[in-house]
Amino acid sequence: GCGTTQTAAGTTSHSKVIGVSMYSLTNPYFAAMKKSFIENGKKDGLQVEVEASNGDQSTQLAQIETFIQQHVAAVAIVPQDSNSIVTAIKELNQAHIPVFFVDSNANTKLMAQDGAHEVEVVESNNYTGGQTVGQEMVDHYGKNAHVEIGIVNFPTASSTQERDAGFLSVIHQYPGYHVVSTLDGNVSPVTGLQVATDMMEAHPHLQAIFSDTGPAALGVDQAITSMHKQGQVDLFAFSSARQNIAEIENNSVYKAGAMQQPKVEAQVEVANIAKYLDHKSVPSRVLIPVLGVTKANAASRLPLSFGKV
Amino acid sequence: MTSIPVLQVSGISKSYNRVEVLHHVDLTVYPGEVRALIGHNGAGKSTLLRILSGAEAPDQGSIMVGGEKRFFASPRDAQEFGVAAVYQELRLLPQLSVGENIYLGHEPRSRYGIDRKKMFRAAEQLLQRHNIHIDPREQVGRLSHAQRQLVEVVAALERQARVILLDEPTTALQADQVDDLIRTVRGIVADGTVGVIFVSHKLDEVWSVADRLTVLRNGDVVLDKATREADKQEVIRFIVGDTHVVESSHGLLSSQKGSSGSQRTESRKMGPEILRVDNLSSRSLRSISLNVNVGEVVGLYGLEGSGRTDFFRLLYGLDSMIGGRIDLAGRPYHPHSPKRAMALGIAFVTEERKKDGFVPMLSTIQNVALPVLSRYQSFGFIHRSTVERAVLDTLKPLQLRGDPSLPATHLSGGNQQKMLFARTLMQNPRLILLDEPTKGVDIGAKAEIHRLIRDLVQGGDVGVMVISSEEEELLEVSDRIIVFRDRTTDGTSYQTKALTDIDLRNLALSEVVS
Amino acid sequence: MKRTRHIPKEMGIFSVLVVVYLLFGLLAPTFMTTSNTFTLLLNGSVVALLAIGETFVLLTAGIDLSVGAGIALSGVVAAIAIQHGLPWYVGVLLALASTTLIGLFNGVVIHYVKVPPFIVTFATMGVASSIPLILTNATPIPITSNTFSFIGQGFIGPIPFAVLLLAVVAIIAHLILSRTVFGLHVYSVGGNRESARLAGVNTAKVDVVVYMVSGLMAGLGGLVDASRLMSGYPTAGSGTSLFFSISAAVVGGVSLFGGVGTILGAIIGAVLIAVVSDGMDIMNVSSYWQPLVIGLIILVGVTIDTLRVAQSQRVSFREVFVARFTRRAVDHAAGEAKSASK
Amino acid sequence: MKRTRHIPKEMGIFSVLVVVYLLFGLLAPTFMTTSNTFTLLLNGSVVALLAIGETFVLLTAGIDLSVGAGIALSGVVAAIAIQHGLPWYVGVLLALASTTLIGLFNGVVIHYVKVPPFIVTFATMGVASSIPLILTNATPIPITSNTFSFIGQGFIGPIPFAVLLLAVVAIIAHLILSRTVFGLHVYSVGGNRESARLAGVNTAKVDVVVYMVSGLMAGLGGLVDASRLMSGYPTAGSGTSLFFSISAAVVGGVSLFGGVGTILGAIIGAVLIAVVSDGMDIMNVSSYWQPLVIGLIILVGVTIDTLRVAQSQRVSFREVFVARFTRRAVDHAAGEAKSASK
Ligand SMILES: Nc1ncnc2c1ncn2[C@@H]1O[C@H](COP(=O)(O)OP(=O)(O)OP(=O)(O)O)[C@@H](O)[C@H]1O
Ligand SMILES: Nc1ncnc2c1ncn2[C@@H]1O[C@H](COP(=O)(O)OP(=O)(O)OP(=O)(O)O)[C@@H](O)[C@H]1O
Ligand SMILES: [Mg+2]
Ligand SMILES: [Mg+2]
């Protein structure tokens, strides 16, 4: 089941075509979102075509232009970059194709400046998600603890930058908490694994690693296990992968984290698009909460996650 | 010739890997003079020429052109100061056209770029002037070896240089082409402004072209004399530095018939037929018929482009046959690949060693052993010391100068040719195809190679076919000669005893007319 | 450079391009519209620009890995310059200067120090991708100049300005390579550097200039991207641009070993890649399948082209087959003779 | 077959490696520990394995772009096999078979159809990266076999098993290239394909086998990664692996033009890259700066090595400079003489 390959030619038929331009489909998070988009679309009689820009802003632009060529009924975008996507919004506006955002929004100030407009955005608040993980960490070690923290991040995307900022905003309130190393996990388990091993070699007293992406968290988790640092180094991370959530329940390495709800985001987005196309009113902003996950609630969160164990 | 020397070289020294190949060499060329530079393989002739043309920097010494001291950082500098060169290893670029190659580096320009029309017109005139019938728009890669050599020489002459350096410009050329070239060179120096250095291993050429000669031995100038006053025997002694070898090369010197016959048993019984070719045709050859017996050397003669090289390539599986029949040792043979040809006992020395003869980065030992490695291995692992010993034994009689454990590019041109001949000897073949086997080989080693070929056919059950552009060589080494004309032959052969080089030339020409 | 009596070598891959274009057109009605054709050309313009620069470099048997990073550098330099109140054209000049300087450095080190091009441009790729990140702290810098937006978003008639720019640059590059002394020298250096040197070609000039051209093209590509995105994006060009630009040149018949290939070929290669990418998007081919599809289309295309050339240049297929067949028969007979004689 | 009296060429880049290692050790106390040294070797083992395969291919003047994708393919195949209840070793064999088959395909098409290696392996790279995504729907597949985990996580004494595996593979590869008939044939094909063919070398066998070796190495690399992550990750190896493996070989002296280079060099190159990557992480170099730092270290290292070789083989630096200078002086004098005489 990897998407439809029908063309948009059939706009005359009843099923309307929705174009979705995503960040990356090789990240399970977005793979889950895509699946939800297509399934929920089917329920509402919408045909959803999903493209991935694989981390490249100009690819995203190209894909949106393709949607314009196809005269799709609406476009939903997970923006690579909140600024430069504004160009695309303008083009869509000119083509009279309604624009929806999902996962994160475009730069609203710039949009206002350029006279570009969107219909709606379904956001999960990355900043508060980061704060949630920070708070979980503080809860885990105690407010007065002395903790050496390593961060495995993805420094070149705005969503992960926000997560880091949220996380740091909490951590910085506690003088005992020190970030001793920040390395790029490149949203990749292999890179996550490698930088985490290096981090632990460099800082023998490291106690906690924060990973701002799920794929890198997978690698960090294995790094801790394979260096036999269970109990010495704990993992806190953003991830909605079932494998990771199950790890939290098990609680040997992965202590707590935050999960976004890609399925829910897509579901809400599709529902709102359907409403809009039926000329009903839709809210301009829907916030999907980023859920904190701890050992206590992991079991109940498991059904919301995606992937295999 | 009391004028300022057009080229004066003093105290030039050069070492490679701490081995000195030139030792305080002094050399003077006056305008209007052709100076021959001769010496054994690896004596340092090409190295000296490369230094004079700016291709390489000397370790020591100075160069004066037209009385002024010059330093050449690159060939471009040398050309600016009026020095042009033909290198031993041809420098032409196969992807470019003949015209582009001739004018590369000094292209005729129009306001917007290259004036190709003018360039091709000039090239056409130039080629015509030298009696070379080649389309200047043709890609150089499609030319025969001899044609390329001619183009190269003509390109150097065209540079309007004061000093022209020619490193073995005649190796691939036919006798009449050599005569033309010599006439051209004499013509160029005739007006007394240009000086030429001419490297060759063929003493006949030296005597007909050069005013003076310089003999290099192991990087030292050992003789510097007017050609008129020099004696061939003396010169050979200086080249070889060893009287023993002079004896054996004596036959080579005099190009009259009969002298070579003395090395041969007059009435030898031929062995069985090793190769029979009937009515063979390919894309470039038509109905070739001939046969070769075990125990004989068959010379193939023909004008340039008569199809001899193509015939060898076909036999070796490098081209596909379209019609006819080949029998190898009495069995039908259909050439398919070099590997198969080799497995069936055919060995081949190609005419252009640099193109498809050897692998430059491999050592001489590795290059020689490459086709026969399977004999010196167990479980795929090479017995290095055995290989080394076998190769060194084979190389010994060839007087190879240079370190055989170094990459083959470190050898001088003639020594590379010896390396390829050694490879043939290693293969113990039944049928040997030699295309210009002594190209660039010095006088001593050449005689040795001829002797080895004769020994081979007398001793073992081998048949040999030789292509050579030197009539003397063919007459010297072959039992009989087959003449190729216009990409075909019917196999009629001529006993060498009954032939002179003049006869041979006439034979090749006459029937083209008829 | 060659006589025109031969069919140009690029005809083969050009036919492949036409066939692929028509196929996509058949499969998806929206594909073959004028508007979509210009869109795909616009989307492919950056890779095509890089492929032009890469062609110069590859012709000398070099390689330039720094072009992808040059895109980011150029865009960010322009954005910062404009952000600081400089006029847009100063931003453009600074951007082009920055990547051309990188090219100058590449060429000088490659020629004079004789470090392999792969290593030198690997290093400058690192430098050129770090600088934008450091300058911007990984945050894209919005560009506000409206004039600047014309580079990537303007139209002249129905034609996107960037596509016109590409066409002009391609024609100039083509003329340089095919008509000028410098062009001939580029081919000669790539054909055999030593031969070219012996013939008196200024190899230093050739080496340095080709990398500067490649840098300049990366700079132009960066400007097109920045203008389309209206921001200096510090990780622009980090995706497939470099890879696709080399692939475009190679698909178009440029040899990695130097001396062989044309601008025309490289452009055809780049357009082929743009057509396939756009076609797959239009047909909504799953992104899981896209690498496979593009790989196979290019492989099949180049294979057909290769076989066609092999067929026309060498022996005809019939001849080979007849020969093979005869050989079998003969060998077979020989085998029988052998076994009979035992 | 070469005489050993010469200092091996790899000494140059090896000294660079030692110096870089010691420098990082000086700057960061935790760097030069046994434990961190093995960690960096373990982290570099996959690139090193790929570099071994790439060396075989580069020596024949080929290139293999499909190795990065092979990592994902191999890991996913093993994971799926184990998930379906097959024993771990069957998973391992299937994984290795899958990438070796890709290599077989590469070699056959490159040799017989004469399509450039860049194109063929570009296509198989696409295929090998699509298949894992299609098979897994982009979701990693957890591996549960404990035995399997030994490949990437096991230790023998203080040494990680993967590092030992790498050492054994490297030694075998070294012996094959330096001691066997096949090895010499690989060098000869890369040095001058036509000469090798005329000398009776089975070029088909060489071409096909080198790509199979490269595929096999990618498969091994994939197993190491999968075992370290304990999951078949469909985009493993999509990052810098391919690029670093070619760079490692080139840094170690392997020529992209064939015929030159050794396994020893490639391994030293791979370890150098691993040391720099690890050292930068240990020193917490900002990820913005990392590409710049690694690029410059490698450039400086190779430059020093190049200059050293140039110096020892040819003329000394002093001489070159003197010559340059003298030339100017002479030219100048000559110029003056000329103008004076007018
Ligand atoms: N690039 C090189 N590296 C190392 N040694 C070299 C190199 N080129 C030449 N030599 C050595 O220098 C010596 C002189 O070589 P050179 O080519 O000048 O000889 P030559 O007189 O031209 O011989 P030939 O008659 O065979 O052409 C030889 O011993 C050769 O091995
Ligand atoms: N007239 C021609 N037509 C086609 N090809 C030619 C012609 N002349 C030469 N060639 C090509 O040049 C190469 C050598 O030519 P060929 O074998 O005919 O020469 P040859 O008889 O060996 O003469 P020599 O070796 O004395 O130059 C071959 O590859 C051949 O195809
Ligand atoms: Mg010589
Ligand atoms: Mg010939």
From TrEMBL, chain B:
Region annotation Disordered: where it falls in the sequence: 250-270
Low complexity biased stretches: 250-263
Domain ABC transporter: 7-243, 269-511
Keyword Repeat carried by entry: yes
Keyword vocabulary terms for this entry: ATP-binding, Nucleotide-binding, Repeat, Transport
InterPro entries: AAA+_ATPase (IPR003593), ABC_carbohydrate_import_ATPase (IPR050107), ABC_transporter-like_ATP-bd (IPR003439), ABC_transporter-like_CS (IPR017871), P-loop_NTPase (IPR027417)
Keyword DNA-binding: no
PANTHER family: CARBOHYDRATE TRANSPORT ATP-BINDING PROTEIN MG119-RELATED (PTHR43790), GALACTOFURANOSE TRANSPORTER ATP-BINDING PROTEIN YTFR (PTHR43790:SF9)
UniProt-recorded name of the protein: ABC transporter domain-containing protein
Organism lineage string: Bacteria, Bacillati, Bacillota, Clostridia, Eubacteriales
Automatic annotation (TrEMBL), chains C, D:
InterPro entries membership: ABC_transp_permease
Entry keywords, A to Z: Cell membrane, Membrane, Transmembrane, Transmembrane helix
Matching CDD domains: TM_PBP1_transp_AraH_like (cd06579)
Bilayer disposition of the protein: Multi-pass membrane protein
PANTHER family the record matches: ABC TRANSPORTER PERMEASE PROTEIN YPHD-RELATED-RELATED
Keyword Signal: no
Residues passing through the membrane, by range: 12-32, 38-58, 65-82, 88-110, 117-135, 155-177, 243-276, 288-307
Name the record gives this protein: Sugar ABC transporter permease
Location of the protein in the cell: Cell membrane
